[in-house]
Amino acid sequence: MEEEKAGSGAGKKTMAQLALRFVILIGIVSLFADLTYEGARSINGAFLAGLGASSAVVGFVAGFGELIGYSLRSVSGFVTAKTRRYWLLAFMGYAINLLAVPALALAGTWQVAAVLMIAERTGKSMRKPSVDTLLSFSGKGIGQGWAFGLHEAFDQLGATIGPLAVAGMLLLKNDYRDGYAVLLLSALLALVSLVVARWLFPRPQDLEKEEPVRTTLASKGFQRPYWLYVSAGALIAAGFADFSLIAFHFGRTASVSVQWIPLLYAIAMAVAGLSALIFGRFLDRLGFIAFLIAFLLSALFSPFVFLGSFPFAFIGMVLWGIGMGGQGSLLKAKLAGMVAGDQRSAAFGVFDAGFGIAWFAGSAIMGLLYAISIPALILFSVLLQLAALPVFLSVLRSSARY
After folding, report:
1. Which residues are paired to 217 by β-bridges?
2. In sequence order, what are the beta bridge partners of 222?
3. Distances (CA, A) of 292 to 63, 275, 330, 375
4. Residue 209 lies in a domain
5. What is the Cβ-side half-sphere exposure of residue 364, based on CA atoms within 13 angstroms?
6. CATH code of residue 122
7. Exposed, middle or buried: residue 203 (CB in 10 Å: 0-12, 13-18, 19+)?
8. Upper half-sphere CA count for residue 349 (Cβ side, 13 Å)
9. 74 near 347, Cβ under 8 Å?
10. Does 133 map to a domain?
11. What are phi and psi of 217, to 5 degrees?
């Protein structure tokens, strides 16, 4: 009997080790992927302007790209859930997502560049539900919070390095096209890493042994707790200001010098990576307290960012980074524990679509409020994020996993 227990313990340990290795492999893919497209996003607006695009075009391309990048995830999520071709959707999405970036170096008009930028977001929408589902299979062995938190840390490391790498290339060459061209290397490294992950883990779903769980996704559709969770996520998204608006404020008021704007963004990304690790671990151990701390802190970013001088702006961007890290490590991790494995890609896709639409609508409203009243913008941002907390609490209390 003791030998059987020892063997069982060794088996669990081995499964946890395999799960951790898989998370790290997918994390490496995400590191190179984020390095690629976040590096590009740091110069997309300026590149479009250099090609003759107006400010309205720049704003439309950025906003429409994000809307497409989120809303189409509901479609790709249901396709993945129906076919269970996780790796196929991941490869197709990553290829479009990543190769569209260095192709921008060849764009001769703003129209061509705009199409490539939207294609990059479309590729991400194709692969995100399948990748999140693959990642969730490892949560059984090491905890969903830790799996998604560790992955988000790799994400944000790439998002930190990418803009800095492009900035370095611009210092050397002073040409946006060279900045896009150098990102071909990281794009190829991401695709090679994905091939390695597929070769070593052809069936990541085997990392998770399905058990009967109370699920919020029934055979006939989503149930009420799931939609409440989607609504809470939408409140977080709608109240969370996009960095483009923050950067616009910094430039307009000169509260932050031009040189510091991209550096503050990089610092926020680094904070997001660290907070993702911390809150991911907290989620597995403390449950709702992790949600409370992360989103309570991030709800306070807007007064610091929009009302203060540089020291307050710095604090505000740290709080903003905590919000980014919390979103990356908490929202999907908890959702993975609520939904059966074969339905997660659909659940992830619909959640992302709602999150993205709310982000787009909230950003538009905050853009209008900025021109009318900054205090009104701050009130809008803070209240919406705080309103999500009691909704999360009601859903999480009914969950069987945490």
Report:
1. 222
2. 217
3. 29, 14, 11, 24
4. no
5. 13
6. 1.20.1250.20
7. exposed
8. 23
9. no
10. yes
11. -125, 105
* Whole-number Å distance between alpha carbons of 274 and 279: 9
Domain limits at 229?
8-199+215-397
Residue 111 lies in a domain: yes
Q: Rounded to an integer, what distance in angstroms lies between the CA atom of residue 193 and that of residue 222?
A: 35
Distance, CA of 316 to CA of 297 (rounded, Å): 10
- The predicted model scores a pTM of 0.77
The kind and range of the H/E element at 35 are: helix 2-41
As a whole-number percent, the residues of the chain with pLDDT over 70 amount to 89
Alpha helices in 137-175 (DSSP H): 139-142, 144-173
Helices (H) and strands (E) in the chain, counts: 18, 2
Residue 349 in tokens: 């896709």
* Cα 213 from Cα 401, distance rounded (Å): 8
Distance CA 245, CA 103 (A): 27
> For 269, phi and psi rounded to 5 degrees?
-65, -40
Q: Give mean pLDDT in consecutive 10-residue pieces for the chain, a chain of 402 residues.
A: 42 76 94 92 77 74 79 86 90 95 93 92 91 86 84 88 85 85 95 96 80 46 80 92 78 74 80 87 82 91 89 93 88 79 80 86 84 92 94 73 42
Q: Strand pairing partners for 218?
A: 221
The beta strands (E) that lie in 172-303 are given as: 217-218, 221-222
Q: Does 384 map to a domain?
A: yes
Distance of CA 122 to the CA centre of its chain: 14
Q: What is the pLDDT of residues 373-395, one digit of tens each?
A: 899 999 999 999 999 999 988 88
> How many domains does the chain fold into?
1
The answer to whether the Cα torsion of 350, 352, 357, 358 is positive or negative is positive
Q: What is the pLDDT of residues 54-96, one digit of tens each?
A: 756 776 777 787 788 888 888 888 888 888 899 999 999 999 9
DSSP class per residue in 116-132: HHHHHHHHHHHHHHHHH
